[in-house]
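Hi Y.,

Following your request, here is the sequence exactly as I used it, all 213 residues.
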Amino acid sequence: MSLRAAHLTNERSPSTLADMADQTYLETLQDFYAKHRVLPSFATIGGLCGLRSKSSVAALVARFKLAGYLDTSPGNRLKPGARFFERSIADSSVRAGLPSPANDQGYETFTVDEFLIERPSKTILVRVKGDSMIDAGVFEGDIVAVEKRPSADIGDMVIAILDNEFTLKYLERDKQGFYLRPANPAYPSIRPSDATQSFEIFGVVVGLVRKYD
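Below is the corresponding structure, written out as tokens. Let me know if you'd prefer a different format.
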């Protein structure tokens, strides 16, 4: 598995903004939204971007709408468009071993939502608590994307419900039947008993998000 790095470059693909000034304006709006969780008014956009006339702001907003970065809500307020949360990815991957020559010749874009989630209506995000899956690279505080399904394949990382309590484990099976395997030797496997425990699959882990402080 290779890690692909977000990356700035002066080159633009056809699907991105062609004007460097517009790219800077977009980044300003993205930072504003990240801080306030709402997009600014037209007047505030003018102040943030140094645009003195209303027509300049209107033209900027129109370009962003056309490109898919902005949209309008039913209340006629600006809202993020489908591409507002896109992030850039370098064309070259980053080696976790020996260094490799840097390639600064372009990038593609993607959104985290599109990358992790195939079925939005069936997917929720769950914050991890505990350390029973650390050997699988899942740590306390991580957020896992879980696609809700009533069944799973052997070896899947699942969220299961045992006696109305959620647990994150690998689903396994042997001669004795199904069981839940942790990824930490300090914890035992869990073998649900039909006679004493209710057991069901809540969903399958399809991705993970971690933020470094």
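The chain has two domains: 3-110, 120-209.

Thanks again,
Q.
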